[in-house]
Structure formats: C-alpha cells, structure tokens
C-alpha cells in the first residue's frame, strides 16, 4: 500500500493516481493515522 501526501487544497474531488492504476478499480480513503499504525496493519494482513 502506498500512502500519498496531499499537495493542494481546494473543492475538487479529483485525485491524481499513478499511471499503473489507470483503468483499475481503486478506493481512495482519507486517513489520519501515523505511518507506524498503517505499517502494523499491513504487517498483520501479510502474515
């Protein structure tokens, strides 16, 4: 999972994603968690 940082503020609902994700199903979720918390959850899912 890759965590992207916000780069601009505004009222648009657009999200810039990597080209590799083009024409794929993706879910964009706003999160307010530390990177450590996210990495622990990923580790639990992997193992």
Description:
Helices cover 26% and strands 0% of the residues. It is an all-alpha fold. The longest helix has 12 residues, at 35-46.
Element layout with pairings:
Elements: H1 35-46
Share of helix, binned: 25-40%
So what's the overall shape?
A: flat
In angstroms, what is the radius of gyration?
A: 13 Å
Low-confidence stretches: none
Beta-strand percentage? under 5%
Features:
single chain, 47 residues, mainly alpha, 0% strand
Quick structural overview:
With 47 residues, this protein is mostly helical.
